[in-house]
Amino acid sequence: MVLFPSFFNGLARTMSSSSSSLKKTKSLERDAAAAGGGGKEAAEELTKDAKRNELILSSSGIVKSTKSNNFASVCSRRGQKGVNQDCLVVWEEFGCQEDMTFCGVFDGHGPWGHVVAKKVRESVPPSLLCNWQRTLQSSLNVEMELGGLSNQQHRFDIWKESYLETYAAIDQQLKQSHPKIDTFFSGTTALTIVKQRNHLVIANVGDSRAVLATISDNGALSAVQLTVDFKPNLPEEAERIKSCRGRVFCLQDEPGVYRVWRQSGKTPGLAISRAFGDYCLKEFGLISVPEVTQLSITSRDQFMILASDGVWDVVSNQEAVRIVAAAATAVGDGGGREKCARRLVEYASRAWKRKRGGVAMDDMSAICLFFHEVEPSPGGDGAESEKKKCLD
């Protein structure tokens, strides 16, 4: 695994055919030095460059890497509550590292939730790159003492520290730097992953969910949940909220839906225990600290699904894996990996109508990230096809 080279060197490699591009790279390096190694301007330039090269997708569609077997299918559909407050992003060759992919799903809530979600989506990747690069540089001596690049735990510690710094800074910036955005009663979840070759780092705030599809010992494709749905009634979450003078309870007309409330018990109540924004509840136990975990991807692991809670409210983990696997191996107009995210969202939409017909449908978004090539199979178990286009 190539761990140490900075994303500036990665940018230089990808642009080496142009002398003007090389000059630009040196300029970015000077920006980073002037910023004390943070490289904010450089990270922003990397983002712009990735968009120009179509390495970043932030709407329904596909992203296929030319440098690896990664393939991402993406779909976001507006529900029945107004503007779509979900947004997502896939960035191949993240930070100009050929073996690195970044994915994220953000589910906004509140009057300005769609604005907050997009702001966090725009802020996390470049900020994470800055913090990752700085942490890499500062840990160089430690890496050498631990035997170089082979210590996976140390690699994970670098990512974890970078994530914690990134999320804390962005949450603070939302409060201080955006007076025109109401983040007092609005916020967003954030589920993001960084895949570097076979090393996967997952950071989660809120109740969006990541699920892995892996081949079990008996040869069947099984679903493994990789994240925790951070609901207020989870014991550790409830303990923290109560220790901060917050309250956790359900309304009479929402049995089973636990919310965080201020001490007075007055609105608003929030059905998640971790979120960006929502400053009306931050002093009552709501936090934006991500749970950061890691996974080593093996040949048994086929793909992963990142989706907002609108999907998981009506579709089980195993159902989702079955639908995506069927779509990926089907042939014809209704199949193929390109259609997987759309097929999952369409399935969830129909499931919502069956199970929650009297409740306004939530926004639904999904990213299906494949790790290996998939062989088409005419047999597929054929999840239903529906020729409706996803709405951004």
TrEMBL record:
The EC number(s) this enzyme carries: 3.1.3.16
Reaction(s) the record says it catalyses: O-phospho-L-seryl-[protein] + H2O = L-seryl-[protein] + phosphate; O-phospho-L-threonyl-[protein] + H2O = L-threonyl-[protein] + phosphate
Obligatory cofactor(s): Mg(2+); Mn(2+)
Entry keyword Magnesium: yes
Keywords, ordered alphabetically: Hydrolase, Magnesium, Manganese, Metal-binding, Protein phosphatase
Record InterPro entries: PP2C, PPM-type-like_dom_sf, PPM-type_phosphatase-like_dom
Magnesium is among the record's keywords: yes
Annotated GO MF terms: metal ion binding; protein serine/threonine phosphatase activity
Biological process, per Gene Ontology: negative regulation of growth; response to water deprivation
Pfam families referenced in this protein's UniProt entry, alphabetically: PP2C
Ranges where the PPM-type phosphatase domain occurs: 71-371
Family assignment from sequence similarity: Belongs to the PP2C family.
The name this protein goes by in its record: protein-serine/threonine phosphatase
Organism of provenance: Linum tenue
Classification lineage: Eukaryota, Viridiplantae, Streptophyta, Embryophyta, Tracheophyta
